[in-house]
Amino acid sequence: MPSLTVVNGKQIVIENLGPMQRMVRFFVSPFAQMWHHRDLIAAILRREINERFKGSVAGWVWAVIAPLLAIAVYTFAFTSTVKIPMNELAGTKMGYALFIFSGILVFNFFAEMAFRAPMLLHEYSHFIKQTIFPSDMLAVISTLRATAYTLISLAVMLIFQLIAMSWVLPVTILLLPLVFIPFLGFLIGLSWILSAIGAFTRDAGYLMINIVPLFMFATPVFYSHESMGPPFNLIIYANALTGFVEVTRDIVLYGKLPNMLVYGWTVLTSVVTFYFGYWFFNRYKNVIVDVI
């Protein structure tokens, strides 16, 4: 039976839960909070998306132009000098450009979150200090905002792939949500960790600015893990992004099922990062309001 106690004039209900009940509550809690605050998440998300191109004449057109220019540059700069086997795409003019762009797509999604997360709570400090604001939902909102632009880039890539593959896409593309959803969980968990650290020190933001660009070269964006000799072709999977990049290429470009060990590793990494990030953020949640 739950017990009632009073702390600083406030009534607090203390529930006597067993270990299994506490574990179930912990695993369900982040999703329950997302559902409970769904209207607030939707409202802030709409505002953030609308403000992204506020004052711009072209507006959302820029979200389409950016990936178009990227693919055009990669095609021009790399296809004439670098040759990488691409299965169905081998021998096509934009094969390597799509190879690179698929890696850039995953990495840029990660980079946007890594750059913004350390300062995320500072952006909303007024709401956090002045109102009863669910600060843990900011990581969810920020990830969904980045998701909107990533999906636009993905759509552009698929259109170019249609052209490159004679208007036929592999049926394995239908499996893309099985990669995308774990990746969202990974990024939300990462945002919880970085935003909590960033609340205490702005050095976290400066650290991300310096190491994220370097991190690109530790991720198989411009190359495949298969081109690396042992043991580096296995060590590279210590970088969680490697699995996401390789699995995405398998189901989108190569039209084949991903290696189940690699996919299992990416899912495990996502689950651990998501729940560790949730635990880490909530551990310091009550202190954050005093330090930002």
Largest sheet, spatial ordering of strands = 1-2
Strand % is under 5%
**Quaternary structure classification:** single chain
Domain count? 2
The separation of the N and C termini measures 38 Å
- Low-confidence segments, given as residue ranges, are 85-91
Report the strand count: 2
Mean pLDDT: 84
Provide structural commentary.
Mean pLDDT is 84; it is low at 85-91. This protein has helices spanning 19-36, 38-52, 61-78, 95-116, 120-123, 125-130, 138-164, 177-200, 203-215, 232-235, 240-254, 260-291, and strands spanning 3-7, 10-14. The chain has 292 residues and is mainly α. It starts with a strand and ends with a helix. It is globular. It has 2 domains: 1-26, no CATH class; 37-291, no CATH class. A hairpin with a 2-residue loop joins strand 1 (3-7) and strand 2 (10-14).
Summarize the structure.
The chain has 292 residues and is mainly alpha-helical. The chain has twelve helices and two strands; from the N terminus they run ββαααααααααααα.
Outline the secondary-structure elements.
Blueprint: E1 3-7, E2 10-14, H1 19-36, H2 38-52, H3 61-78, H4 95-116, H5 120-123, H6 125-130, H7 138-164, H8 177-200, H9 203-215, H10 232-235, H11 240-254, H12 260-291
Antiparallel strand pairs: 1-2
Keywords:
292 residues, two-stranded antiparallel sheet, globular, 2 domains, 12 helices
